Amino acid sequence: xxxxxxxxxxxxxxxxxxxxxxxxxxxxxxxxxxxxxxxxxxxxxxxxxxxxxxxxxxxxxxxxxxxxxxxxxxxxxxxxxxxxxxxxxxxxxxxxxxxxxxxxxxxxxxxxxxxxxxxxxxxxxxxxxxxxxxxxxxxxxxxxxxxxxxxxxxxxxxxxxxxxxxxxxxxxxxxxxxxxxxxxxxxxxxxxxxxxxxxxxxxxxxxxxxxxxxxxxxxxxxxxxxxxxxxxxxxxxxxxxxxxxxxxxxxxxxxxxxxxxxxxxxxxxxxxxxxxxxxxxxxxxxxxxxxxxxxxxxxxxxxxxxxxxxxxxxxxxxxxxxxxxxxxxxxxxxxxxxxxxxxxxxxxxxxxxxxxxxxxxxxxxxxxxxxxxxxxxxxxxxxxxxxxxxxxxxxxxxxxxxxxxxxxxxxxxxxxxxxxxxxxxxxxxxxxxxxxxxxxxxxxxxxxxxxxxxxxxxxxxxxxxxxxxxxxxxxxxxxxxxxxxxxxxxxxxxxxxxxxxxxxxxxxxxxxxxxxxxxxxxxxxxxxxxxxxxxxxxxxxxxxxxxxxxxxxxxxxxxxxxxxxxxxxxxxxxxxxxxxxxxxxxxxxxxxxxxxxxxxxxxxxxxxxxxxxxxxxxxxxxxxxxxxxxxxxxxxxxxxxxxxxxxxxxxxxxxxxxxxxxxxxxxxxxxxxxxxxxxxxxxxxxxxxxxxxxxxxxxxxxxxxxxxxxxxxxxxxxxxxxxxxxxxxxxxxxxxxxxxxxxxxxxxxxxxxxxxxxxxxxxxxxxxxxxxxxxxxxxxxxxxxxxxxxxxxxxxxxxxxxxxxxxxxxxxxxxxxxxxxxxxxxxxxxxxxxxxxxxxxxxxxxxxxxxxxxxxxxxxxxxxxxxxxxxxxxxxxxxxxxxxxxxxxxxxxxxxxxxxxxxxxxxxxxxxxxxxxxxxxxxxxxxxxxxx
Length: 932
What we know:
- By secondary structure, this protein is mainly alpha-helical.
- It contains 47 helices and no strands.
- It is globular, with a radius of gyration of 36 Å.
């Protein structure tokens, strides 16, 4: 038995250091099973105590109730062998009692008598154990509040506040959060906000805090006229809550916030993301009530802004039938809103019947009253897709035009979707054109077998249209004129071209453009251009504008293939200036010119072209193509340093891609990056977190996940979430190590160290930097990373007066000289001066700082030059050399002429120095600069 017991101990140790979640739950289940197998009830007690806590955090109410009941029975039978506290740092048995009363109250399956019996049993155990009654009063307060007995709840709240705190009282975070929720529900918004802000300012946190508390004051913040605080609270609360199904009630509050703040698309996305959580914990029915009401509010808002017919993804899951009933096909937002209200009303009635109150009916009335509440707090992570085309075809001829336009752009899937209605046209010539487009698309989609089966229909249509010579040609060539790229197809085209003199002009053009396309696929641009020229003359002779324009686009592609951007750009400009270009061709040309302009760094012009392509594609209903076009527009606006515009385009691309079943992870990464550049760090952090989660689920290679984790860390830092940023940088460094990307690993560790140093965790920061320095030396080709890491370590050493700093500065200076990095050389020289000053080597420190200033000034960086001079002046003034400091201060003032903060500080300090020297007039003159 020694080996299984050793394994049990290993499991217990691993459980105690594993965060809450699926991995920890699996370990607990294994420990319980092993203890049962061993037949050792004392070990089983240790395991089940942990299981109760694990199930409470994971929303497994049935497991929690059973585990607690087992533990309580054994404790009551033998308190010595089965103690209330197992000394694992977690909740003891008496603390867990609080969870039991709450769990029973959360389901109408348990009677009021059962709940009262648990509360009485809890109080009896507390009194028997000689414990304070704060925990019991807390449980009774929660019971009265949840049951809708508000007068009783208020009396218990007052009694609880007057009761001395003890070791079973709610923690500083949970106590404040609980009362804040009660105050918010009883129209005491200011008190709710006060408690939550106390909690945040005090840094108090717990298992589901601060995310629960923040969700409770979202509406109070809005009603207090503090939308920015509400937005910040929402983004933080949702980011912390969104990955744990036990947080359904917290998520519900955040969905309501999105719905009433004009973020209906975001609210819908959140409903879709979390609707499956309804089936997670069958006994947490009160959370189901809250979520269903929130879903109903959100979906009503979605319907009110014109998107009631939008399908709600995930709502047709079999696990949700008990809530919404059976349904044929996907639920629309409007349909699901009604079903959610009905389900919430049914559940609320069951609770009120159990409790003998109207508490849940009143809660539902408050939710319905939100219909008239509207606040403007834009959040840009989600958007509805563009509306359907303003002109939907009404007959076969209209669908023919639509299908042809889609084909001319190259929207293969949308063209195939439009084709069945277009093929209802009576005109044989139009049918022949549609068949041609279909065959070309099938070949492009590698569906040649299907194309071969349909070729006879095309030939029949040609003969019906009186074009027998073209029909004969295609019978001889098969699929060669539709893009089939085989040696036989190319040879057949060459043979027919050689004998084509007697063919009609249209057929000669068809042969030439088909051969040009194959040359283009083979990177034979000049040959493609020669055949395109022949095709252009033939189609002009045949007076076929559509194919003349198609030929021009092939010629543009050939010019781009051979790298002749100037000729391609000129041809594109002339083409778009024509008035006979179809919408499909025009959209394609704008998109091509957007890429050309982007490649030439004309980002704004390129983005404008991409936007115009999006407009045209929206009119054509080319949804898949439109998602890609918005992605291109977003990338170009991002390159143009217009992140706000980039975000809006990426947002549409992500939504459209998701609706078509595509993977929007890459688009969301780009959108989060643009949000960060636009200064929306909190929103960026939320989205980077989602991207990282998606990448984890898809088992994306570690190097890619590491990059996302690094961007998440940067966003968290910018949002002031430094503790989480340290963890994210640490995770990024682990992933970079797994990917053997040493330079990036060292950089992540360096960023982690910088945050630690900011909060005076200097020993840990230096330890990290020392490790990073060892790692970065393995990346010999990453000079920039080596310089950054070694420089940072040198600065850390220098701040402590450690002589090792100077060897590192020498190494960085050598790298700067080797790579002609003048700014880095000036910067490391400045760092050398600061390290010398720490050692009291005044003359050397000043000389180094002034040398750095000259270097910065020579590169045109007046701000950095003035900063180095300001440091040198301070060193002189602080070492009883004020007269020597004066000219250095004056030089700093000159460099800071256009930099108000630098100018102000230098003027104030120089004024003090001059005053101390008795030069009062000069001091007054300098100080006047501060006010000017």
